[in-house]
Amino acid sequence: MFKRIFHRSGYLLILFTTFSVYGQGILQKDEAVKIAMENNFDIQISNNNVDVAENNASLQNSNYLPSLSGTAGANYSNSNGTVVQKTGEEQAISNNETTGYNASIGFQYTIFDGLGRSSTYKKLQENYNISKLQARQMVENTILNIFNSYYEVARLTQDVENRKETMNISRVRLQRTKYNLDYGQGSQLDILNAEVDYNNDSITYLTNKQSLANQKRTLNLYLGRDVNIEFAVDTSLSYSEDLFLEVLLTNSTENNVTLLQQEGALKNAQYDIKSTTSNMIPKLSVNGSYGWSENILGVTSFLDKTNGFGPSIGATISWNIYDGGSTQVRRQNSKIARENQSISLEKERLNIERNLSNAWTVYQTALFVKDAQKKNLETAQSNFDRSVDTYKLGQITSIVFRQAQLNLLEAQLSLNQAKYSAKLAELILLQISGDLSKAKF
Questions:
Q1: Pick the residue with more confidence: 160 or 100?
Q2: Cβ atoms 299, 96 nearer than 8 A
Q3: pTM of structure
Q4: Does residue 279 sit in helix, strand or coil?
Q5: What is the DSSP string of 144-166?
Q6: Domains of the chain by start residue, with CATH
Q7: End-to-end CA distance of the chain
């Protein structure tokens, strides 16, 4: 009967859990990623920064296009005075009015600037590429945060189920000790011990439920949605079976997002040298305009009115022959900055190789621990099943039974922790290698 009670409690637990999960609705892993890509606040800001970099990298911001301007004006004067003729005769003038009008449209274009704008334009394009890499890095970090939280929800979900099962077992044990006392078996001390264990299990169960609720709110925050939305998660896991350290190391040199940003910064350092060098090269620019003007002259002029219109064009060659050496100093400093960036790039390569090797070791250890904990659970489950039978027959004490129960719970919790830790270690390994997009969640 005692064993049947345990089995019935387990069946009710499974039934309750099934209705609870389907009642809440399961948040699938791919759905979580999709929601985050649309709503996550950090990703939205990162995407806006990419748009800014794209605008900056446009042709309109490169000085390649000519400038075009238009002007128009008018002036008026009214003066009083004296006019002295060559003969010496003086004539008083009053209300001598003159008016003038003008309008023109002009353009200016630099034909050759020493390749400075070419370097600037390429640097803006590279900045755009770097901003996209930064956005990708933000997406990768967000995905890791999401699945760190998602798998924590999954782990706590299973822990709550295990805690509830343990609580139910303790409740059945408490009922059995009361039945035994009614039939003259056992003692009041057995009841007190069973009651303490049941209360402790109940407290731990409620505490774990609270932790689960808190973690769900954290996941909702990462998804950029109402933090109080209720949901369940998919607790199933799949692991990649085709990961090899040599392949991951090769991929990291081509795909690691941090390394790619460093390579972009090295290109920009080279463009800075070319841009500074362009200040030492002659520049050629052209300008032109088409204008109109009209002047109505006063009584003191021999002419009553003048007007004119027509085009004008010109060309200018400028050469900064010597500026006191400041351009040369900037060029030398740009070369030093490029050398520093080259050193930083090499340092980053070694840093990524170290991080990847460390992550590989962590991943392999996590897989071993997962498999070992799985075997421990099988042993603990077998031991607990035997303890149920022997306890029912009165061949072991409640203390021994309780220890078998705790061993089973500990094995369940340890396996949950191990399998989700192994999955997260796998995702971190793939991120470092630049292959997170290929991960199986």
A1: 160
A2: yes
A3: 0.83
A4: helix
A5: HHHHHHHHHHHHHHHHHHHHHHH
A6: 2-63+114-281+324-438 (1.20.1600.10), 70-112+283-318 (2.20.200)
A7: 43
